[in-house]
Amino acid sequence: MKIPYIKCHGSGNDFILIDEIENDFGFSEKEREELSLLLCDREKGIGSDGILFVMPSEKAEGRMRMFNSDGTEAEMCGNGLRCVARHMIEKLGKKEIAIETEKAVLPVSQVEEIFPEIDTFSVMIEPVSFEVDSLPMNFAGKEAVDVKIPELSEERTFTALSVPNPHIVTIVDSVDQEELLSVGKKANDLPEVFPNGVNVSYVQILEENKIFVRTFERGVGLTNACGTAMSASSLVSTILGPNDLGTPIVVINKGGLVNCVVEKDNGRFSIQLRGNGTNVYQAEVDVDLGALTFEVSEKQFFAEENATYEKLEAFAASEIGG
Ligand SMILES: N[C@@H](CCC[C@H](N)C(=O)O)C(=O)O
């Protein structure tokens, strides 16, 4: 089976984008899982944090399904949705469209650049819920806001929320990557507390409306950035920290930066996530799922936009002294 794909990223969170509107491959659920395991592998595969399947929708201009590198499907993917938004916006020649995701039809648009020369896409992150049942999380209370989870850490306090994939967020003085790795692994090996697993983020407040976020992603591990995690972290650091509602929060990550605007309307939170949707290259992969082998054609790189993105990356690194 020959599958054209685009290798793309949002803040260095990288994906293989497969357009099933252009080509109806008729993948089974098992094939989606197998493709993710085979192609996302960093050593033997193409290498990526996940696959974005772009499909037709009856409710919107397109539909996104996102599979993590371990073959599991996520309810939502913020960085991935920006890449899908860019793909569909360019394809349809419109600036504002809607994309169906597992839990909601979400508005996406091309907006003012958040960094010089970086085409910027805004995606709505919702529904948002602090109810522990929405993750799900087994906890003695309706919500778990700024609470200890002794199975994970004796010291830290976490806030649980779904956006709508499951997240826990802790605010720290400085991000200890080794600790995050260990806590992330523990949290995803704790079905009695998190039956469906959970994304774990450590947030450092750099100044008012500027934070640094690192995330251990369910189904992947430590990634350069996670869009839903940066959105969840912006909301938590608005409620528990110095950030403001309705104001762009600059979120620095290992792969760049995004802006998040947290809004509250009739008691309900939503977050606008704004950032890049950068294409790295396009190619075709010839996959034999029976033999679990594949071959990639010659790659056509998007050299200019990648060179431009390097400037944003360098700026973001300088913001955290890297
Ligand atoms: N990196 C994504 C989130 C991908 C899904 C996540 N690992 C999960 O299983 O919930 C993002 O940018 O939001």
UniProtKB/TrEMBL annotation:
Substrate binds at residues 13, 68, 78-79, 165, 199, 217-218, 227-228. Its EC number is 5.1.1.7. It is an enzyme of class 5 (isomerase). The active site is at residues 77, 226. Pathway: Amino-acid biosynthesis; L-lysine biosynthesis via DAP pathway; DL-2,6-diaminopimelate from LL-2,6-diaminopimelate: step 1/1. It is found in: Cytoplasm. The record marks 167, 217 as: Could be important to modulate the pK values of the two catalytic cysteine residues. It comes from the Bacteria. GO terms for biological process: lysine biosynthetic process via diaminopimelate. SUPFAM superfamilies: Diaminopimelate epimerase-like. One of its GO terms (cellular component) is cytosol. InterPro entries: DAP_epimerase_AS (IPR018510), DAP_epimerase_DapF (IPR001653). Gene3D superfamilies: Diaminopimelate Epimerase, Chain A, domain 1 (3.10.310.10). Keywords: Amino-acid biosynthesis, Cytoplasm, Isomerase, Lysine biosynthesis. GO terms for molecular function: diaminopimelate epimerase activity. It catalyses: (2S,6S)-2,6-diaminopimelate = meso-2,6-diaminopimelate. Pfam families: DAP_epimerase. Catalyzes the stereoinversion of LL-2,6-diaminopimelate (L,L-DAP) to meso-diaminopimelate (meso-DAP), a precursor of L-lysine and an essential component of the bacterial peptidoglycan. Homodimer. Belongs to the diaminopimelate epimerase family. This is Diaminopimelate epimerase. It comes from Halobacillus trueperi. The gene is dapF.
